[in-house]
Amino acid sequence: MDRKDFRFFHTLRVRWAEIDMQKIVFNGHYLMYFDTAIADYWRALALPYEEALHELGGDLYVVKAGLEYKGSARYDELLHVGMKCSRMGNSSMTFTGGIFKGDQLLITGELVYVYADPQTQTSKPIPDILRSTISGYEEGQSSLQLRVGDWTSMKKMAVSIRTQVFVEEQKISQEEEWDKWDDGAVHVVACNGMGLPIATGRLLQPSPRVAQIGRMAVIERMRGQQFGDIILQKIVSLARDRGDQEAVLHAQLSAENFYRRQGFQRRGDVFLEAGIEHIEMSLKL
Q: Is the pTM above the cut of 0.90?
């Protein structure tokens, strides 16, 4: 087993509380590392675990867990936890993992899950959509399907995301969130393999050859997987394709670095919008 065997990695640093009297990671914590990586694996699949399995009418239960120790990790070392689904049966799936320090393999692990009815905890066949989502990811396919359209066709999905992010999480009023510009905008929504919407953004054209990007949102549980990058890149591509020469947006201060990584530059002073500090940013197309 080596790093090239894995598409997915979860990165962590060893914490002081995780080492024992020998000044190495206590053996039981490695199982926790693998379990934490599994949670991030679901995010990489673009599947919010609780919502997705509720939609499917089942849940996953660990029936076997095993570790093999080849080396030891120490306080503050940076570890990379590789994880892959190595087998899917009728109702069970096996995940194989490797914990690496650089290229050195320290720990291997195996977790076996059974898909079951949450009420009776009796096994049932893995749904085809879950099976295809996992196998597609392991084969290198994208976890997302991008959909582009007008407000009429995209409203239901976009409203679901924006309500969660802006209205419920950020406490923006309904009156401020739903404005007149939605009707004339191009909307982009990212859906996972089950068709559940997880990220969105919109594209306006306030003046000739100028693109205005707004309402960028990713549901909380799916953040950290660059899904926002994918939405933004698609919107910028749409703006370029229609001949726009500049893209502008109002970024919340907490998101400024996100847009900087995509080439946007700050201009002007900080201002309040919906009670939240923003900055205008622009990108030459």
A: no
